[in-house]
Write a structure and sequence with these properties.
196 residues, 0% strand, 5 helices, mainly alpha
Length: 196
């Protein structure tokens, strides 16, 4: 049996791979900066007798940056099937069963990605102090906060990290939907692509 819209599948995968790769690069840059910030802060702590000190709010920046980096890596990882799998038993199954189990796994990850994006959306809505109540109701944001939640030392609004993570979480959902389409096509063909 043929796959589902193979030409469209290839075109979508090409564009999605390019976009998810750039998100992964962005996440890598953010994570590298968080590592450098940590090193500079530790060196500053060690050199307190010389008049230096830690970077103020370093743990706040690392917390937000690591969340953004992790969400940025997820779409590319899933597109390339980079998640950890245990294949000791599955490798002995026929190709069609393996591809069907891959489809089941992709459907489950898609459901989890939708729940994560949904909960992140609600959490973001509780922290964003914008919009009239009628707009907030349509968006599912709940009541407008009385004050903006900020980090303790730097006073950065917490919603900055939520917005950046939400963008990557939405891309993760789109990538998961594509992965289900791709896995369904592979299951119908009875094979799994060697380069995925």
């Amino acid at each position: 049996m043929a796959s589902l819209a193979p030409l469209a599948l290839g075109k979508v995968e090409t564009h999605l791979e390019r976009l998810t790769r750039w998100f992964a690069y962005f996440g890598g840059v953010v994570l590298t900066l968080m590592g450098l910030l940590t090193v500079v802060s530790i060196i500053g702590r060690a050199l307190i007798p010389l008049g230096l000190g830690p970077v103020p709010g370093d743990f706040e920046l690392v917390e937000i940056g690591c969340a953004v980096a992790i969400f940025s890596f997820l779409p590319y990882c899933h597109l390339k099937r980079g998640h950890v799998t245990v294949d000791i038993l599955v490798d002995r199954f026929p190709s069609r069963i393996r591809t069907f189990l891959g489809l089941v796994g992709d459907v489950l990850i898609m459901l989890v990605s939708i729940v994560i994006a949904w909960r992140l959306w609600l959490g973001m809505g509780e922290r964003i102090p914008f919009f009239e109540q009628s707009t907030r109701d349509v968006l599912g944001f709940g009541y407008k906060p009385f004050s903006v939640e900020t980090t303790f030392i730097l006073g950065l609004p917490v919603w900055y990290g939520y917005v950046l993570s939400m963008i990557a979480a939405l891309l993760f959902v789109v990538t998961c939907l594509f992965a289900v389409w791709r896995s369904l096509s592979w299951t119908l063909e009875g094979r799994e692509a060697a380069n995925a």
